[in-house]
Specification:
The structure is a homodimer.
Chain A (H helix, E strand, L loop, with lengths): L8 E5 L5 H10 L5 E5 L11 H17 L4 E4 L2 H14 L4 E2 L2 H11 L4 E6 L1 H6 L1 H9 L4 E6 L3 H6 L6 H15 L5 E5 L7 H8 L4 E3 L1 H15 L14 E5 L3 H11 L7 E3 L6
Parallel strand pairs in A: 1-2, 1-3, 2-9, 3-4, 5-6, 5-7, 7-8, 9-10
Helix pairs in contact in A: 1-10, 2-3, 4-6, 4-10, 8-9
Chain lengths: 273, 273
């Protein structure tokens, strides 16, 4: 029987974006060990169907369970929106997504009860952020907008390019003309465009990154289940990284996100799980 | 034993782009039946590694063989560049890619022996177009350039948007300043940006779309092997479409490309092949 306290937390994403969530967990829960999986062979998830995203998530959870994780964080908004309900019923392990924590943060942030959500096509089509927010407070109006070019712009290094400003204007013009006072960055890539989005949307809007709140939720969950690693064993926390493709490219990107040197990244044939 | 003449031709791509190749085959070889597979669950291929693209191509070829195809066309430039050599050795069926036909068309088109190639990151990194062109004529200089944002721009409907013109300028400025006189559109999505690329690059450059030459090569291959469908059985040619995800979305896009109503598209669990 594994020691639940020292067992690692599994974190997964369609690719590299979820590293921002892993980083936040490492900040808030420095004693926890993490096993990260990025599905780089099948990225992106944002344009794919619910059935496919559930199947991919199931395979990844089966893989993470072979690493004896004590809990799993779905760092990907698309998988959280489309697959969390299905996999929670299916697996006997605590699983957290980023949508519920992100929604709660927005509900707390809004004063005028008008919230904007930006995300992938699949996330927005699911309407999950609206459902969860209105489940918390039915009086809140939610405006969702898919911004499918944001991910490739970040991945292709256009973060600082003028083209990105034009694409932000193209997607967010209609949202800016509303009077929302909080906006969820409902895709793990979008925080990397935060300063340009903030510049376009203006200072009156509070921008919510679900990663922070997700790490807090994980902390509560581990403490409630008496699974938190209290670090009394004196070991340094241990991070391991797995991907389904292009390990070296992943490792280089991960090194720019994580606050330590990312060790060797291993390739997993995820379709076999 | 199947009848080789009436057996269908298999055509595959990472997604919808290869439909432009299927359309060209249907124009030049109207009597041939086609089984098309689009790997919509794992699209795009252009940012992935060679091992992964070979594994995906093997699975698709195994699937197409269950449909008793007599020959296979890899309509995807990335898979043609990275996987053709491997799968040709592995399977006992004629397999054609788009790189060799596209290269030959460019070799015939260039007068000053300077050819440009635009494609995905994986295609350009493989250097396959340069190898094949210089194998045909070692005196030709080849300039390759990856344009990874072109595919998402086309897929997100930005074909006519000003942003697309700026991205074209960003990628092709250095190529325009050379004196190439022929340019290969080395990705099946790029012909959909042809008019904007032509406007930017100017009239002196001959733009090569490998689809046309690929259909001609297929015709030769079928005739040489006495496998061409001569249509004497009086049946209409039959097209069937398979994808790994999001069949209805595929069917709608396919209807905008193919010169006839695309029938029901079937979803295949390609990872099982």
């Amino acid at each position: 029987m594994m020691n639940k306290k020292t067992a690692p937390v599994g974190v997964f994403d369609s690719g590299v974006g979820g590293l921002t969530v892993a980083r936040e967990i490492s900040r808030q829960l420095p004693d926890e060990n993490i096993v990260y999986f990025g599905d780089t062979a099948r990225v992106p998830y944002g344009s794919k169907s619910q059935n496919t995203i559930i199947r991919f998530s199931e395979q990844i959870i089966r893989f993470l369970k072979t690493k004896e994780v004590k809990a799993i964080v779905i760092a990907c908004n698309t998988a959280s929106a489309l697959a969390l309900d299905a996999v929670k019923d299916e697996f006997d392990i605590p699983i957290l997504g980023v949508v519920i924590p992100g929604a709660r943060a927005a509900v707390e942030a809004t004063k005028n009860r008008k919230v904007g959500v930006v995300g992938t096509e699949a996330t927005v089509q699911s309407g999950m952020y609206t459902k969860v927010i209105q489940g918390m407070n039915p009086e809140i109006t939610v405006i969702e907008k898919a911004c499918p070019l944001f991910v490739p712009l970040v991945e292709e290094g256009f973060k600082e390019h003028q083209v990105t400003e034009e694409v932000i204007e193209y997607y967010l013009e209609s949202m800016r003309s509303t009077d929302i006072d909080a906006m969820i960055l409902g895709c793990t890539h979008y925080p990397l465009l935060r300063s340009k989005i903030r510049a376009y949307m203006g200072d009156k809007i509070q921008i919510v990154n679900p990663a922070y709140e997700t790490a807090m939720d994980l902390k509560c969950l581990l403490e409630e289940n008496d699974m938190a690693n209290d670090g009394t064993e004196g070991q340094h926390s241990n991070y391991s990284f797995y991907v389904s493709d292009a390990a070296e490219k992943f490792r280089k990107f991960a090194n720019t996100v994580m606050p330590f040197d990312v060790p060797i990244t291993n390739v997993v044939n995820i379709e076999g799980y």
